[in-house]
Specification:
mainly beta, five-stranded antiparallel β-sheet, 21 strands, about 35% strand, about 280 residues, 4 domains, KOW domain-containing protein, 1 helix, SH3 type barrels
């Protein structure tokens, strides 16, 4: 599977090379939801079609290469990885793309002390990263303490243990250096609220591209102060009130003080409240 070079139009621009570059498919052909060209030949599977000599599956072009013309890649850029992940999501249960065979995304970072989830075919385990071992470029790994047992775990099987309410700093990728609270999570993609003037989700980032850190509230206003909320879990589930304080616990997650309509104060986690609409 190959990805489109969308900054090109139907044909390449002038080149100083004597060798003419091959004609590239128009960018529109890489969007299965909007591509309605009359010469399209659609196959039985959804989002699979052909146009002239090109075949497309789930937004990517299928091409055949001789094995001798290929070499392993150490990393894949974030934007390209996103295209393959989108195609895999679109394909559903089809074994179109095996993510475990792909290069390590260049925006993943692991440091000693990171709390991680180890994914395997049968179960999940939890551990703490002791060191990163990158000698084998095809299969980099981390030394992980799993309940006192030291294991070597391939990096592609690790997911940092980040939950709603954690405060993070981005350590790699296009959002490098940005900080904020985790306000949403879908699989391994985090939604981040970056500042006190924000109204919600400011950007998205992969869970393995961040590290836990502690926010500095010394010169900032209390976020969400006086925002009306509904408590959705715990002993006060169903109650309404307003936010009166936000602090960070020793576990680096949010503790939100809510003054209920009854006049009582309660402290809940970020995941236990929702803003009233």
């Amino acid at each position: 599977m190959v990805v489109p070079r969308l900054h090109f139009t139907d044909e390449d621009g002038p080149s100083s090379s004597k060798r003419k570059l091959p004609y590239r498919p128009p960018p529109q052909l890489f969007n299965p939801a909007k591509c309605v060209h009359e010469q399209l030949i659609r196959h039985k599977q959804e989002h699979v079609y052909s146009y002239k000599s090109w075949r497309f599956e789930y937004g990517l072009q299928v091409k055949i290469f001789n094995h001798s013309s290929l070499r392993p890649s150490r990393a894949i850029a974030p934007s390209l990885c996103r295209l393959f992940m989108d195609a895999k999501s679109m394909a559903g249960t089809s074994h179109l793309i095996e993510m475990s065979s792909m290069p390590l995304p260049s925006f993943w970072r692991f440091e000693p002390g990171d709390q991680v989830i180890i994914h395997s075919d049968d179960f999940r385990r939890f551990g703490k990263v002791l060191s990163f071992v990158g000698n084998d470029i095809r299969n980099p790994a981390c030394e992980v303490d799993v309940g006192g047992e030291i294991c070597m775990v391939p990096v592609r099987d690790l997911e940092k243990e980040i939950i709603l309410g954690h405060y993070i700093e981005v350590v790699a990728g296009v959002h490098l250096g940005r900080k904020g609270f985790v306000v949403g999570k879908s699989d391994t993609l985090l939604g981040i609220c970056a500042g006190q003037d924000s109204t919600g989700l400011d950007f998205r980032v992969h869970v393995n591209s961040v590290k836990l850190t502690v926010p500095d509230f010394s010169h900032t206003k209390i976020p969400w102060l006086d925002v009306e909320v509904t408590v959705e879990s715990g002993p006060h589930a169903g109650s309404t009130g307003s936010v009166k304080d936000v602090t960070v616990t020793s576990a680096r997650s949010l503790a939100i003080t809510v003054r209920l309509s009854s006049g009582q104060d309660c402290v809940v986690g970020y995941h236990a409240v929702r803003e009233r609409r």
